[in-house]
Design a protein that fits this description.
Chains A, B: Catalyzes the NAD-dependent oxidation of glucose 6-phosphate to 6-phosphogluconolactone. Two copies of one chain form a homodimer. The first copy, chain A, is an alpha/beta fold and 254 residues long. Chain A has seven helices and nine strands. The longest helix of chain A is centred in the middle third of the chain and has 21 residues.
Chain lengths: 254, 254
C-alpha cells in the first residue's frame, strides 16, 4: 500500500520495538504525547510525520488519521498498576477516540495492543506454576472471556469490545494482540511467567507487520514468541495473520 | 438475611418491576438520581431508606453502601442510542464506582443489569429473522464473547468485565443479567425480536430475587421469560440461580 500506517504511542516500548525492526516496511505516521527525537524515528520519518497529541483530543487525532491505511494503536497508560481514573481516560476513552477517528477517515485495518493482563486471572493458584511449564497443556486461544489481572486489564478487554463494535458496525478489520512480556535481547531471567509469555522485539515487530499486511475480519490473538513454555496458543496468529516467530525463550535457559 | 439490599436506579423501569413484585421480600435501600415519590417505594420503605445521588459521587455511594448484604445495580443511562460520553460516565465509570464501594463495604453479592445489547450483533443478516422463531436452534448461553449492538452495549459488556475483576480479586459473588425486552402486561406486539427476548415484570422480579438469594461465584445469565421463541438459553439461570419463569410470549400471540 502507498498510504501511511499510523502508529500511536510510537515512543513507548512496543512502538520502539516495531520501529526498530520494521522501520523500513511502511510509510509511517507517528503519534505520541511526547516529542519523538530523531533517535526514536526510523530513517526517512521526519518531524512532519510526527503528531504530538493526547489521544483524547479529537481534532488532533482527526488530523493525524487523514489518509491513513492502517492503525497500530499502542497509546495508553501502560502500567499494570495504573489507577482507574487513568485507564478510564487514557485507555478506554482514548481507544474509543482512535477507533471513531479511524472509521470516520475510512481506515481499513486496526491493530489494537491488548495485553496478557486482560486474561491474567486465568492464572489461578491451582494452575500455578504448572501452566508456565513446557509439559503443561492448558491453553488460552482467544475464544475465552476476559479475566483481567487488574483495572489496566479491564481497560484492555474494553478496547477489545470496542473493536468488536467498530468491526461489526463499520466494517473496519480489527485484530487485538494480547501482548505477552516484551523484553529486549533475552527473556526475563528467573521468572517462569515472563518466559512463558516472552515476546522478543523482532517477533513483536513481525507480528504487527502481519497485522498491517494480512486480511482478517475480527480477531483476538496472543502475541508471544514460539516459546516451549506457553499457556497462550499462537495457532490463530499463525493461521490468520501468517505470524511466524523466530524466537523461543527456552533457547536462553541454562 | 437481615441486612438490606441496595437497589440502584430504583426509579427506572427494571427497578420498578422488581419493587412492584418483590417489594416485601427484602429490607430495601433505594438509590436514584431523582427523588422517589411514595408511589415508587414499596410499603415500609421510607424516605430515610432512599439515597438521592449520582453514582459517580463516591462519598454518597459509600454512605448508601454501609451495612448492605447485596447490590442490584441498575443505575445508568438506559438508552440503546446513548452517546459515548454518557455511557462512559454513567455506565462504565458509574459501575466501577458501585463495585468499588461494594467491595470496600464487604457486600456479599452483586447483580449487574447487563443487556441484550451486549450481544445484539450476533443477530446477523443471515440469522434474521429465523433466530427469533421457535423452530430455530441458534442459542447464546453466556459463554460467548460480547458483540455489542451499540456503544450502550459496549458499556454493558465492560460492566461484566469489571464484575469479573472484582469477583476474582475481591471474592464478591457477581451475576450479570443480560436483560431482554422488559414490558409490562404483555410482550411487544408485531415485533418478533421483542417477543423472543420478552421478560415479564414478574419474571424480572423473581430473577433478581434469585440473584440475592442463590449462591454463585461469577455468572452471566440471560434475563428472559420462558418464551417459545428464543435465542438466549435460560438453562444457566435455572441451574445456578433457581430461576423458574412463569411467562411465555407465545401465550399472547394470536
Amino acid at each position: 500500500m502507498d498510504e501511511p500506517v499510523l502508529l500511536t504511542g510510537a515512543g513507548g516500548r512496543v512502538g520502539q520495538a516495531i520501529l526498530r525492526h520494521s522501520g523500513d516496511r511502511f510509510e509511517w505516521r507517528l503519534l505520541d504525547r511526547e516529542p519523538l527525537g530523531a533517535e526514536k524515528r526510523p530513517d526517512g520519518v521526519g518531524e512532519d510525520d510526527v503528531y504530538i497529541t493526547d489521544i483524547t483530543d479529537e481534532e488532533a487525532v482527526e488530523a493525524a488519521m487523514d489518509g491513513v491505511y492502517a492503525v497500530i494503536h499502542l497509546a495508553g497508560d501502560p502500567r499494570p498498576e495504573a489507577p482507574w481514573d487513568s485507564v478510564l481516560r487514557n485507555n478506554i476513552d482514548g481507544t474509543h477516540s482512535i477507533f471513531q477517528a479511524a472509521v470516520d477517515a475510512g481506515v481499513e485495518k486496526f491493530a489494537f495492543a491488548s495485553s496478557n493482563h486482560a486474561v491474567g486471572a486465568y492464572e489461578t493458584p491451582d494452575r500455578k506454576p504448572d501452566l508456565y511449564r513446557p509439559e503443561d497443556e492448558f491453553r488460552l486461544d482467544g475464544d475465552e472471556l476476559p479475566r483481567p489481572s487488574n483495572l489496566y486489564g479491564v481497560s484492555k478487554a474494553t478496547g477489545e469490545v470496542l473493536g468488536r463494535y467498530y468491526h461489526d458496525h463499520h466494517g473496519i478489520s480489527v485484530v487485538n494482540v494480547r501482548i505477552g512480556n516484551l523484553t529486549e535481547g533475552h527473556p526475563p531471567i528467573d521468572y517462569e511467567r515472563g518466559q512463558a509469555m516472552w515476546l522478543s522485539y523482532r517477533d513483536c515487530a513481525h507480528l504487527f507487520e502481519r497485522c498491517v499486511v494480512a486480511d482478517y475480519d475480527y480477531e483476538i490473538v496472543y502475541g508471544i514468541s514460539d516459546n516451549d513454555r506457553k499457556y497462550y496458543s499462537i495457532d490463530r496468529a499463525r493461521e490468520v495473520l501468517g505470524y511466524d516467530p523466530v524466537d523461543n525463550s527456552a533457547e536462553f535457559e541454562d
